[in-house]
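Why do we care about 3D structure at all? Because function follows from shape, and shape follows, mostly, from sequence. That is the central idea of this module. The next example makes it concrete: a single protein chain, its amino acid sequence, and then its structure expressed as C-alpha cells.
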Amino acid sequence: QVQLVESGGGLVQAGGSLRLSCVASGRTVSSYAMGWFRQAPGKGREFVAASYSDSYTVYADSVKGRFTISRDNAKDTAYLQMNSLKPEDTAVYYCAADPFVISHGARYWGQGTQVTVSS
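And the structure:
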C-alpha cells in the first residue's frame, strides 16, 4: 500500500507560481508512474501531468509549457512546478501513483491540495 501526501497549495495571483510536493510512503515508488490530476468546482477530474521511471513525462495541453513535473526518487517525492498561473488553473490538485500507467486514473491517490488563482 502506498500513501501520498500533497503540500504546497495556496492562493496566488494570476501570473504567479506555486510548487506542489507529493511525498509517498509505505513503499518506494521509484519504479512507479507518478502524476497530478486536478478537479475544479463543478467539473470532473482532469489529468495534468505524469512522470515515469525512465524520465518520460507527459502533460495536458492546457498546462504544457507552464507546468513542470519532476521527481526525487531518493526521497520518494514528486513535484509540480506551476508557472504563469491562470484563474482557470484553480482546482484541487491530487497526486497519484501507479505501478504501471497514469492516464485516466491511478491506483493510489493523495487527499488533495487547493490551488486558487485570483485574477
